[in-house]
């Protein structure tokens, strides 16, 4: 199965790694809730907190589900190429979480996502 995500493009044409909603990585929960409009992808706050199956990086099985903005592109990844520590979870018809296959620390999960960087290919 192929998954798609709109992300910022780095100078080498690959997705930028980071904790923004348009980067390769997840947004942890803000412990102080300073911005009530902030969106968190995982319940974890600190690097040692656990990220569990059922939460993770938002992707879509549909390459047209979101339109890229300036300095962004649609990237695709083949799920057969993923390390077994990550698994796709199609939780809605047009949405799929790329989640940990078992609980792991936020730091480990972010590293596992970053390790997929070279597997993502620009499609738009």
Automatic annotation (TrEMBL):
Domain Tse2 ADP-ribosyltransferase toxin: 3-115
Stretches the record annotates as Disordered: 14-35, 50-70
Highest taxon, organism lineage: Bacteria
Pfam families noted in UniProt: ADPRTs_Tse2 (PF18648)
InterPro entries: ADPRTs_Tse2
Protein name: Tse2 ADP-ribosyltransferase toxin domain-containing protein
Source species: Frigoriglobus tundricola
């Amino acid at each position: 199965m192929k998954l798609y995500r709109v992300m910022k493009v780095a100078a080498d044409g690959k997705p930028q790694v980071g904790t923004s909603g348009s980067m390769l990585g997840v947004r942890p929960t803000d412990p102080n809730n300073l911005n009530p409009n902030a969106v968190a992808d995982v319940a974890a706050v600190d690097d040692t907190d656990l990220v569990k199956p059922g939460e993770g990086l938002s992707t879509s099985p549909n390459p047209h589900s979101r339109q890229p903005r300036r300095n962004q592109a649609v990237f695709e990844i083949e799920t057969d190429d993923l390390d077994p520590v990550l698994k796709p979870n199609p939780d809605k018809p047009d949405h799929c979480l790329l989640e940990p296959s078992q609980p792991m620390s936020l730091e480990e999960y972010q590293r596992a996502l970053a390790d997929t960087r070279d597997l993502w290919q620009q499609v738009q």
